[in-house]
Amino acid sequence: MLISFVLFASAAFAQAPAAGTKPAEGRSALDKAAFETYLRHMELWLPQVAIKIDDPKPAAYLRGFSDVTVHLSYNGQSKEEHYLVSADGKNFIKGEAFDVSRNPFQATLDKLKTDQQPSFGAPNADVTIVVFGDFQCPYCKAEAEDMRSNLVKTFPKNVRVVFKDFPLDAIHPWARPASIAGRCVFKQDAQKFWSYHDWIYGAQQTMEPEVLNTRVLKWAGENSVDTAKLEHCMETRETEPEVDRSQQEGIALGVSSTPTIFINGRKLEGTLEWAVLEQLIKFEQSYLAGSGK
To answer: Quick check: 183 and 192 in contact, CB under 8 A?
Structure first.
């Protein structure tokens, strides 16, 4: 068992049970209010940040500790942080516990849903890249253009890319409608989604919220997409629940900015130049070949 974090003794945030007593069955000794106060000071979370602390759950790989998820929200943005708390509530660990007999990214892979999502590349690839993107984000545009231009050409047989919507609603007013429209296109024709994907990023600098639907329908008419079905789908926001699920999945994985990329579960934030991304893919392929997996 490998533990890659530092243990913080923090009697200040929890009260230990009286000597000779144990917490009631099914209840935690963690004092959530005191834990929040301690974390706000340690992490510099200002009063404007809303905090919700989940009940502790048994940790998968560290006996005697529980997983505690802390949900943060501020100005329309959400984020999760994870801590491991001792049974008596007096100590906690910031980070994760790892079992060297398992994939270090397995917990992340278990949360990533790639079925019935927009994807391109080799269907049964050894390397899967999941991109959480925002159609109004210029950094996402740069990343997308690099991937679309180079990935299939360089790795034609063993890399697959999956796109997940993560509109940054607080700062990008047309990102969510663009994601809803993209999902509407995907419902009609999975491959046409990628034409839409490339077009909407290409139109990014001249797009405005007021003309988005009109321009999407014009694009649809020029690309053999059923405009009547698409217009109905966009007007009723039929695919918004799918966008919400994608966004919530990202939040659960600690995504807070775009683009955020997962290569076989390994999280990478920000734009990666193609040369760097290519090297990371080859690194993953080399590892898989050497491990026999």
So the answer is: no
